[in-house]
Amino acid sequence: MSQPKPYDPNAMLDTILAKMQLRNDAALSRLLEIQAPVISKIRHHRMPVSGALLVRIHEATGLSVRTLQDLMGDRRSKFRLSSAQGRAGAQAGSAGGAE
Predict the structure, then answer these.
(1) What is the DSSP letter of 85?
(2) How many CB atoms lie within 10 A of CB 60?
(3) Is this model's pTM higher than 0.90 or not?
(4) CATH for the stretch 9-76
């Protein structure tokens, strides 16, 4: 039986750069509407790839969340989403429209 792929978010990020024909991580951060240091922290294993970021990447690339997880060797089946991880000002509607 083959060994599971080790966790490496760089493989996922590099695949996205190629798929979207982006030149660098700064262009990727603009596409994903996140601050550039977030990509650097993920690449250097100082920040995990959150469920919210995976959803954002899925929306920008069309790649399924499962495919993204496979690209980085992530074997988690569930993610916890935090409202604190959302975009500034995008909290309205995050509770399904309930007030």
Answers:
(1) G
(2) 14
(3) no
(4) 1.10.260
